[in-house]
Amino acid sequence: MTGVLYLIPNTLGAADAADAEMLQHIIPEQVQQRTASLGYFIAENARTTRAFLKLVGARHALSRPLQEVRISELNVNTPAAALAGLLAPLLAGEDAGLISEAGVPAVADPGANLVRLAHQHGVTVRPLIGPSSLLLAVMASGLNGQSFAFNGYLPVDAALRARRIRELELRSRAEKQTQLFIETPYRNAAMLGALASECQARTLVCVATDLTLASEAIVTRTAGQWKQALAAGKAPDFQRRPTVFLLLAE
Fold this sequence. Notes:
Elements: E1 4-8, H1 20-26, H2 29-37, E2 40-43, H3 46-57, E3 70-73, H4 83-91, E4 96-99, H5 111-120, E5 124-127, H6 133-141, E6 148-153, H7 158-175, E7 178-182, H8 188-198, E8 204-209, E9 217-222, H9 223-231, E10 243-248
Parallel strand pairs: 1-4, 1-5, 2-3, 2-4, 6-7
Antiparallel strand pairs: 7-10, 8-9, 8-10
């Protein structure tokens, strides 16, 4: 009998900057308990995962000392050939937890490849409840929550990014669909500037930063209003802070 692959949500901020009180309000108690019961994890980042487990361990006794918990990394640099080795303990009957560096695993996260392989081998996959920055952003944006699409990262090149924004705006208008995307935090200003200049003035643009954190900020304005704000030097305080961008063309 194979083990179970639990998809374990993480906080949306750096775990080493959080505290047990924060964890209590963001990660459900049952999820913390299940996490504490596991001794094998596949994680995007071993260091931040140990920090997260330390927080969990402050409230629930871990199944073994933290230094003895096995953590194998799975990130964008992990070759496809290594996935079988990561799954091997589950095929031998051991339960495991898949943890992203932030938020829910397997969404905008390389863990999706392991989940697919688990299904191929008949391993039970159980997603656990926790914060998703994408869904939280849709909820709080005031944009269309009936139809939306996540587009990952847009091109870094300014010309290609501008063209992609115009394409997404056309799709949004044609399908009345909210378009979501993310950016490397140090390029947030460039992304908002491109949205303000490339979108039609009436297109709604939401900027959702540091979701679930004390510094959370969610603002929805038209592209025209954002353009005026940026011209007046009133940009959001979002540099180097995780941000979700959304647009809805009318």
